[in-house]
Amino acid sequence: xxxxxxxxxxxxxxxxxxxxxxxxxxxxxHYKNSKILLSQNLEGCSKFIxxxxxxxxIWGYFKVFSKYNIRVVYIAGSRSAMGALxxxxxxxxxxxxxxxxxxHIHAARFDLFLDSLPFFIKKLYIRSYQNVDVFxxxxxxxxxxxxxxxxxxxxxxxxxxxxxxxxxxTLTNVSSFSxxxxxxxxxxxxxxxxxIFDLLESFKExxxxxxxxxxxxxxxxxxxxxxxxxxxxxxxxTYLVDAKIEYVGMLKGYQKIEFLxxxxxxxxxxxxxxxxxxxxxxEAMRCxxxxxxxxxxxxxxxxxxxxxxxxxxxxxxxxxxxxxxxICDRTLLDQMRKYNIQYTKDxxxxxxxxxxxxxxxxxxx
Length: 365
Description:
Elements: E1 5-11, H1 19-29, E2 35-39, H2 47-67, E3 69-76, H3 81-96, E4 100-104, H4 110-116, H5 119-129, E5 134-137, E6 154-157, E7 182-187, H6 196-209, E8 213-218, H7 229-237, E9 245-249, H8 254-260, E10 265-268, H9 279-286, E11 290-294, H10 299-302, E12 308-311, H11 316-328, H12 330-347, H13 350-364
Parallel strand pairs: 1-2, 1-3, 3-4, 4-5, 5-6, 7-8, 7-10, 8-9, 10-11, 11-12
Helix pairs in contact: 2-3, 6-11, 9-12
């Protein structure tokens, strides 16, 4: 076994790229000390592949611990019973090997996830999570979700971030639109529970009143517990006959800036059960978009009256009303856009994220 002390990173390294995989990539790539990567990115895979890979990953844990001197294990935690099985095996092995454990949860309602587990595995999972040294949550309000593990375990807060390439976007980009120009953006994975169809229905009403308004959509088509990706695509394609709706697919790098700088506001009418603190919204704000979100979980902590509107979930008329306010009050719109640029620069830059994570891991090493 190597005498060098390593930190082990277990989580969904891209590809595919999504919010959690991007955050995990940054955590791993920017960590400066000795490290080992175990990528577990199964987004979009079939259940059979996920089951096979779960056992392959568990075997990989034993190989890594037999070969290397692992002092800290950083886990990007899963929120499914099968995915969490990998986590609890790794936590148990790390505890046996006297490694310290960091569990980073990139979603809301961890407590309700535990409550939803079948009774015959719930106690096993909770007992394993009790061995975690540090839970990482996105917001201070989330600390209560981990109350059953306190005070033995600690909860540290590490907020999300925006892609640093977006620092090339400046205030001079903000007021360059005409009065008869307005573009709405949807900038997230296309899931039924993310409210994509609520926005599309709202856009139908808005475009009748304001014919010059456009809707641009970016993100990969996916599945949730409402409908699968194939069914969603069929339904989604029926809206694309409208020439004022543009779908550009998944974006990377500077494509994101090009997309977002054409937009006045970004709308995420989500009712996704574990919606927490989307990186996509932070990036939209950084590129000068006013924000419209639904009142679910902690989104109202991100979006204040200075940065946009918070509307009720599954309420198409409320979405339309908020968009109309921004179309009709360009002074308010410009105030929100300028505020969002400065607010995200101050609060959500990647240096803060990387420094905070590295300090937590190194403190345990």
